[in-house]
Specification:
four-stranded antiparallel beta sheet, 9 helices, alpha/beta, 13 strands, seven-stranded mixed beta sheet, 359 residues
Length: 359
């Protein structure tokens, strides 16, 4: 998971700051009427754009309530070290067609899936082994993520594979997961988007996590899904408050304390860089709403990729509720990009499990 989190220069939002307020208190205006959502209140509004996925299958998916998505990057050790979590810049909202509008009333609390991103190579790990297969506490790191979402009640569990997918499939073949191939990596939104066909008839919610975060806890995931259902949210994001937020996507809230957006460090103002509440790339989405929005998600104008973390702000702008769960321990946010970081996380998990720590 890289530390590439969704962000968007607030100066591009229309509207002016509230009297005496700051950019974070800006109330942008929609370029079109927001749809009505039962039991929800709009939180963020953004001007429109009409750039969307450029492949024919994506256009076909949009007409069948499906989409392909992207997941971003998560922070790791130190500063400025990319990992592979969910992230990306926030881009202008394109209202989905009326038949695809997200609606919290479609929640099916009996259905809970999980999407785990495991397609990357992890070039800084050295060698040819896919990053998610490097061992932590005696098991491939992705196994711990699969265990956590299963313990939280997720089924089906979709594992997005790409680089050396034969090895990942072989290592996870007995774990009752569904493999989905991401043939070309185009960002985090695209990584989720390739799961659209597998979730064609799915009407519930889904965790979206990266496969290189083996310290994720089942009790946090349970809190997230409980909050998601109790608040009838379209999206629920976990957050953490850290002393050094360098490299993480900042959580920008309204004056009332509601979610406004995730701002990527490279897009943040000096004021936003001082925010210590960050996004560690743990998310729950209402699947039909997520896929509907991904069907019309524009590319990031800088990277040309699709970012999943753009979606919460877009859904909020359309009237959906985005809930925040500020419960992530700073240690649990550690991801893995180098052998040195692998050794640190291995020691943390071994200590947690009461196992002998390697010298």
């Amino acid at each position: 998971m890289n530390r590439r989190h969704a962000g968007y220069p607030l100066s591009r939002l229309t509207g002016a700051p509230a009297p005496g307020g700051t950019a974070a208190d800006r109330t942008p205006q929609l370029a079109y009427p927001a749809p009505s959502f039962p039991r929800q209140r709009p939180t963020t509004r953004i001007a429109g754009s009409n750039d969307s996925f450029d492949d024919p299958h994506a256009r076909q998916s949009a007409t069948t309530h499906l989409a392909r998505g992207v997941i971003g990057n998560t922070p790791v050790f130190g500063t400025g070290i990319p990992s592979s979590s969910l992230g990306g810049p926030v881009t202008p909202l394109v209202p989905p067609p009326s038949h695809m509008q997200p609606n919290a009333s479609t929640h099916d609390n009996s259905e809970l899936a999980a999407i785990i991103l495991a397609a990357g190579k992890g070039t800084r790990m050295g060698g040819d082994l896919p990053k998610v297969l490097h061992e932590v506490a005696g098991r491939p790191m992705v196994h711990w993520v699969i265990d956590a979402v299963r313990a939280a009640g997720a089924s089906p569990i979709l594992l997005v594979v790409g680089y050396r997918e034969d090895l990942v499939r072989d290592a996870c073949r007995d774990l009752d997961v569904t493999f989905v191939t991401q043939g070309e990596q185009k960002g985090t939104g695209h990584a989720v988007h390739v799961c659209a066909d597998a979730l064609e008839d799915f009407t519930g919610d889904a965790f979206v996590l990266a496969g290189d975060g083996p310290l994720v806890r089942q009790d946090l995931l349970q809190t997230m899904i409980d909050t998601h259902h109790e608040t009838q949210s379209i999206t629920t994001l976990a957050t953490a408050t850290v002393d050094d937020p360098t490299g993480y996507g900042r959580i920008v809230r309204t004056k009332a304390g509601d979610f406004m957006c995730i701002v990527e460090q490279k897009n943040a103002t000096d004021e936003q860089l001082a925010i210590q509440e960050v996004y560690p790339s743990y998310a729950v989405f209402n699947v039909p709403a997520m896929l509907a929005d991904l069907a019309v998600l524009p590319r990031d104008p800088v990277s040309g990729e699709y970012y999943l973390t753009t979606v919460p702000q877009r859904l909020a702008a359309a009237g959906g509720r985005v809930s925040l769960v500020p419960r992530v321990d700073a240690q649990d946010m550690l991801s893995i990009n180098t052998p040195e970081q692998l050794a640190i996380v291995d020691g943390v998990l071994r200590n947690r499990l009461g196992m002998e720590v390697k010298a």
